[in-house]
Design a protein that fits this description.
This protein is 37% helix and 2% strand. By secondary structure, the chain is an all-alpha fold. The chain has a two-stranded antiparallel ribbon with strand order 1-2.
Length: 345
């Protein structure tokens, strides 16, 4: 009886063009991937405390950090929508459109750096950028701190979150608090995570075939590890350059390093929760996950994936959707600053 079952499993795998038997797929996957840990990761030089988490959460949802008092971190990285904004490229101050798609904030703490080009070394440094970017919040550090100091509740919360600081309410501490809150936005316990921990039944046979294809075809070379990406930089278009509308004239990491070899190089995005975060790629020009998988097969791997193969890989990728963070929207302090804000046309 056992021989009959084993033969049937092998036949299913061979039908998809993948050697598939027993838990060999699990064993190989455990060599390439790690499950998202439970709990909050440690942050170098920024100890996690409940006071920082609560302050950081309020600041994350605080639109008054922007010049218009409209744009918050959550505006582009919506915690109720997979950690991004469901837009091709971000919308910011004065309804300007940013140049790139908003990456998800979920599990971003596990990335080697932040932004598509890696220009921020960590979430603390990243948190400072949008506040000052004219196309995003269009504010200044001085303006943001002036606003926060105008609200006594924030002044007290900063004192509690940074009790040893001579001046607790600073731009650096604002970013540090946001970093701590964002570190809580992880998505553990996906079905794929449970599979990696040894629960074979967590994935269906088709999903395991898709995982096997993902590894066999070479997708795992850029999208392995804990976050299934976010650990390195790679050219977009290893075999052939994607269409111009998808590239959107973006030179990638070369804008940061000024090194010619970094032209069209981007940080590989995390593929966790990928079904929740369309559209795809830095330009946000591809809306269907199936189209994104097919495109990556051709331009990165030089492989024309069949419709069946694409479907199986997509089936697998959907198993990476983890437990979404449960965030209660905070009640923000009443403002004592009644200065008129810019009108957004």
């Amino acid at each position: 009886m056992k021989k009959i079952i084993a033969a049937g499993v092998l036949a299913l795998g061979m039908a998809a063009g993948v050697a598939f038997a027993g838990n060999s797929v699990m064993k190989e996957a455990q060599q390439h991937f790690k499950p998202i840990p439970f709990g909050i990761p440690e942050l170098p030089g920024n100890p996690v405390t409940m006071e920082k988490i609560e302050l950081g959460k309020m600041l994350y949802f605080e639109p008054r950090l922007s010049k218009s008092a409209l744009v918050s971190c959550n505006f582009c990285h919506n915690v109720g929508m997979g950690g991004d904004d469901y837009q091709e490229t971000a919308t910011g101050h004065g309804w300007q459109r940013g140049p790139r798609n908003s990456p998800t904030v979920f599990n971003a703490v596990y990335n080697v750096a932040q932004f598509w080009d890696g220009r921020a070394k960590d979430l603390k440094e990243q948190a400072k950028g949008p506040v000052q970017a004219s196309v995003e919040m269009s504010n200044t550090p001085e303006g943001a701190i002036k606003t926060l100091k105008s609200m006594p509740e924030y002044v007290e919360m900063f004192k509690k979150a940074f009790p040893d600081a001579k001046d607790p309410l600073t731009f650096d501490n604002m970013a540090a608090a946001i970093e701590v809150f964002e570190a809580t936005l992880t998505t553990p316990d996906s079905r794929f995570d449970r599979f990696l921990r040894g629960e074979e039944a967590a994935l269906t046979r088709d999903e395991q075939k898709g995982l096997a294809l993902f590894m066999e075809k070479g997708c795992v070379d850029c999208h392995g590890g804990l976050n299934m990406g976010g650990e390195g930089y790679y050219p977009f278009g290893v075999v052939e350059r994607p269409a111009k509308d998808i590239m959107a004239g973006d030179k990638g990491r070369m804008k940061v390093t000024m090194v010619q070899s970094d032209e069209y190089v981007f940080k590989a995005p995390s593929l966790r929760n990928i079904e929740l975060t369309p559209p795809y790629f830095h330009s946000g020009k591809v809306w269907k996950l199936e189209d994104a998988v097919k495109l990556m097969g051709s331009v990165q791997l030089g492989d024309t994936l069949s419709k069946k193969e694409v479907g199986l890989i997509v089936d697998f990728l959907k198993t990476t959707t983890g437990r979404q963070p449960h965030v209660v929207y905070p009640i923000l302090p009443a403002s004592t600053n009644t200065t008129p804000r810019p009108v957004l046309n």
